[in-house]
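In the laboratory, one determines a bound structure by crystallizing the protein with its ligand and collecting diffraction data. In a computational setting the workflow is compressed into a single prediction: the sequence and the ligand go in, and a structural description comes out. We illustrate the idea with flavin-adenine dinucleotide.
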Amino acid sequence: MAGLGVAWRLAQAGCAVTLFDVATIPAQSGAATWASGGMLCARLEMTGAPAPLAAFALGARAAWPAFAAELDRGAAMACGFVERGALHVSFGRERTGAPGPGVERIDRAAALRLEPGLADDVSEALWAPGEAHVDPRWLALALLHACRMAGVAAEPETRVNRLVEQNGRVTGVLTASGVRAFDHVVLAAGAWSAGLLRVSNLPGPGVRPVKGEMVSFAADPRAMPAARLIWTDACYIIPHADGRVLVGATQVESGFDASLDRDRVDALRDAAIRALPALGGLAELERFAGFRPASDDGLPLLGGVGPEGLTLAGGQFRNGILFAPLVADAAAQHVLQGRLPEIARPFAAGRFTEIAA
Ligand SMILES: Cc1cc2nc3c(=O)[nH]c(=O)nc-3n(C[C@H](O)[C@H](O)[C@H](O)COP(=O)(O)OP(=O)(O)OC[C@H]3O[C@@H](n4cnc5c(N)ncnc54)[C@H](O)[C@@H]3O)c2cc1C
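The predicted complex, in structure-token form:
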């Protein structure tokens, strides 16, 4: 999805852009975007985050309304962006954590006014009115439509076997049909990005896959069990406009093993039903997993590494959907002007190779 965003921005700037994906676009098997919840939580997700990351999250959240509106126009397709806030509920005698900026503690009655379907033993909640969500699958499809309408040539089911370097400059990519020459290459292969650098004998940061498992329920879109994001200490619940209610997510370090652990996913389902009992009456729709792209310091990886002609757009870990508008702008600016915008500079992908040098 990062690749779609950057491709769209570059095509809008007048570049001839070709987009490769080893799978269908948007990719469904293991790709983080297809498996994502779509939360845009610049507050609840950033508890304890380093200041530059928290600022990036707030900047991205602020960019979302205009990004979604532009995308809706550019793709003639909605991406399911909803600004209704998030509740982090607690049960019985549990206390919710301390409210930070943009978050307030509310009692049970106030929580029920927001979400009448909450369980009987929900005792209080943290209320973050500025949080939002988007349907990540609609988002990816809308970005693909917008890319096509802006002139991007999409080549699905085309694996990039390696990046091609000549005399200190990346000059193209190697696919099964041979070398394809380009003035500039953007590497946005999610959890697979480090592997591509490695097989290309190029320097670069580590990126590892962190599996996230999810489960979804099928609700009647006319009678949703909830309208807004609901968090507990054990899960989060995301109601999407088409009736899919997503529940996530585990965080498992097991390489590229995409298998689903029944007990872990059952635990997510049960935790969600505990908070929102109406979910127990709905059919389970799907269980799925994706690989979050995690850098060695947990921060995004943007801009150049090593040779000229190469830009990274990766390392978004748990928040790549939230970060999408800023990642697209930052990577496009790096391609066009050779530098990152101020807000993205703490995430310069060269930080690891520069330290090593
Ligand atoms: C379960 C789960 C829940 C999440 N929930 C949220 C959330 O609520 N909010 C949020 O902001 N973020 C969330 N995230 C994180 C977010 O989904 C990711 O940070 C983001 O989607 C990463 O996007 P990406 O485009 O970099 O990677 P991906 O979406 O993984 O895309 C990488 C693409 O590269 C392609 N590719 C790989 N190798 C090659 C190759 N050799 N040649 C060609 N193509 C290749 C793949 O097919 C794929 O399409 C979640 C992630 C998971 C797994």
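Residues 51-75 form the longest helix (25 residues). Keep in mind that any predicted model is a hypothesis to be tested, not a measurement.
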